[in-house]
Amino acid sequence: MSVLPLKDLFSDDFHFRLPYFQRAYAWQTEQVGRLLSDITGAMRASGGRRGYLLGKLVLAKRKGQPETALVDGHQRVMSLTLLFAVLRDLESNPRFQERLNGFIRGRELRLTPQEAIAPSCERFVQAPGATSVEPDEDLDILSETERNIIENRNYLRTELTSVEFTPDMRHALVDYLAEQCCVIVSSVDDEDEAWASLRTEEETRVEFSKTARAKFNLLAIVPANERSECQRVWEACETLLGASDMHALLGHLRTLKRRRQSGKPVEVEIAESYKFNVAGAGAAFLKTQLQPAAECLAALRRTDENPFGVGEFAERLRWIDMQLWVPAALLWLQTKRDTEETKLFFKRLERLVWMMRIAGFDPTKQHNRIVQLLGEIDRGGPVSKMRELEVTAEMRDKALTNLRSPSFDAKHFSGRVLRRISIALGEDPGPIARDRLTIEHVLPRAFEAKSGWRAQFPSVRSVKQYAHRLGNLTFLSPEENQAADAFDWAVKRPILARSQCVLSRRLGEQEDWSPPQIYGRTEDLIGILFKDWEIKF
Known about the structure:
Layout: E1 2-5, H1 6-9, E2 15-17, H2 29-46, E3 52-61, E4 67-72, H3 74-90, H4 94-101, E5 111-112, H5 118-126, H6 144-160, H7 167-179, E6 181-188, H8 191-204, H9 210-221, H10 224-241, H11 243-258, H12 266-273, H13 281-300, H14 311-320, H15 326-334, H16 339-359, H17 363-379, H18 393-403, H19 414-424, E7 438-441, H20 460-467, E8 473-476, H21 478-484, H22 489-497, H23 502-507, H24 515-532
Parallel strand pairs: 2-4, 2-5, 3-6
Antiparallel strand pairs: 1-6, 3-4, 7-8
């Protein structure tokens, strides 16, 4: 094994290729956002002087030959390629451009992906200027991997052109990436040997779920005479929540105790924070912290007969993010405020979490905002005065950019936003499901050459410019969707007017469907959502 800085990894010493059976690129904006945030956070914390480890790569490479099979580490290498490519295309200085392009291409491309996506990767990422090129084709034609690449690329471009990333800051980031960011490289000569080694490691490792591992490690510390009772409490909590939420709850309790993020396993910090090595401390944590929190969280999940009167808000919070908001909710409910204040708190918490997600804030920034909110809850002021619950101008503007995007339907939250707008109009159509509720593109994404749509949308480019916008989307039942198909507006309009979905019934009031109507409805729908959330724009 060896430790390599990125300047050596992305060099002529390595030409990475992905075996055809390699896992597809699956990272989304949440993972890429965390990568960028963690790197920039480490850079700021040390003034760029301390190294940052980006994990381990498993490679198959013969000594002295650049040809390298990337057996494990695809997600990070592709994401770093996106990052270098975006930084290159934002650079105006030719010398810096050349340096950055060197991380993408030397004697040949540093990374050759699977054959099926290689043309798209070069067209939209690797070629100079490629990260500002938008696809001409319908996004639905692209594979999920290609859509992930384009959406992550666009996310990085948005982040790296924000106010905090001045040209000097981007230059410092490039230096930090090249010199201080490192990977652990495990390399063997033969590709089959590398895969065999990786498989053996995976198959012989004792596999615990995160929850089982935490339970095992924490109860092992508890004195033997307390262990049986502690196990009973743990299992009662896990029955209430389920395994994955049980582990998440430990993380929430850590956040409430430490008020910061940490790279340590959650059970380690719980043991340290609550002094599990002291007799009785572990049992006290389980009975006075874990069990009440588990019962509170289970009660929050109940939409009907919610004991706190906030079931609708908690449910909508879960739609957009299962965990981020939970520490603030638990702390608030511990304060035992009156019902109206509690309803206002959850209404504004819902608005905050949705807006951060729509705005594309990275996970670290979202977590830090919640931690700051915990401090305001501690101080005990009225909800109306809590600054951390307010929507900032930056948050509003970034959310507006994403809501107005010509590729809105490709965003992972698009269907949930439509559902939330429907609720603001007084009807909840329920979750999207193939057998009961579908998203309809009013202007079809494709139609016959002689279609009446050609009058308003004469080219493929004009269809692409409008078909994927928020204003062109609605809900229909599967039967309604099939009846509407790609027919002209005159045929679609009465189907929409008779729909069971409020979004479609309102569309039936339109005389025609053209670019101004799509732009106008986009703004109308944003206005409905923002009015419900009491946001001015």
